[in-house]
């Protein structure tokens, strides 16, 4: 489907939704997407990008149940792993890119560069 849009676009094409495995990343890129965006998978495992990059994992543990969405105003988290709100810390952890959602308390690690998987 990305190839159908590619001819009429001059902007990068980004796939969002359900990206949780190295295979799905490679498939999206092969189908013409320039980038993939991960959301829920990074809420469950903020270190997932690094694990995929270094080969210690080939898939995330997120089951895409959307139960994390109920926690957006009390500290976004995977409620399967953390049923109660997490304490606020002064040091950010993990890798998470968040766009267009200023209300979300993103956990971003500024001292670690996130590079493409592949």
Your description of this structure?
This protein has 4 helices and 2 strands, in the order αβαβαα. With 118 residues, it is mainly α. It has a domain at 2-61. A two-stranded parallel ribbon has the order 1-2.
Task: Give the DSSP E fraction (strand runs of 2 or more residues).
Answer: 5-15%
Compute the number of strand runs.
Answer: 2
Global mean pLDDT: 74
Number of H- or I-type helical stretches: 4
Give the topology, please.
Blueprint: H1 2-6, E1 14-16, H2 22-30, E2 35-37, H3 40-44, H4 48-54
Parallel strand pairs: 1-2
Throw out a few tags for this protein.
single chain; 118 residues; mainly alpha; two-stranded parallel sheet; 4 helices; 2 strands; disordered C terminus
In short:
The protein has helices spanning 2-6, 22-30, 40-44, 48-54, and strands at residues 14-16, 35-37. The chain is mostly helical.
């Amino acid at each position: 489907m990305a190839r159908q849009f590619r001819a009429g676009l001059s902007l990068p094409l980004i796939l969002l939704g359900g990206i949780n495995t190295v295979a799905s990343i490679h498939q999206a890129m092969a189908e013409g997407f320039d980038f993939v965006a991960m959301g829920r998978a990074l809420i469950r495992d903020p270190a997932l990008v690094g694990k995929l990059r270094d080969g210690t994992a080939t898939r995330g543990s997120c089951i895409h149940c959307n139960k994390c969405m109920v926690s957006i105003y009390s500290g976004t988290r995977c409620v399967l792993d953390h049923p109660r709100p997490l304490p606020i810390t002064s040091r950010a952890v993990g890798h998470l890119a968040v766009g267009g959602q200023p209300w979300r308390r993103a956990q971003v690690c500024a001292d670690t560069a996130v590079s493409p998987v592949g």
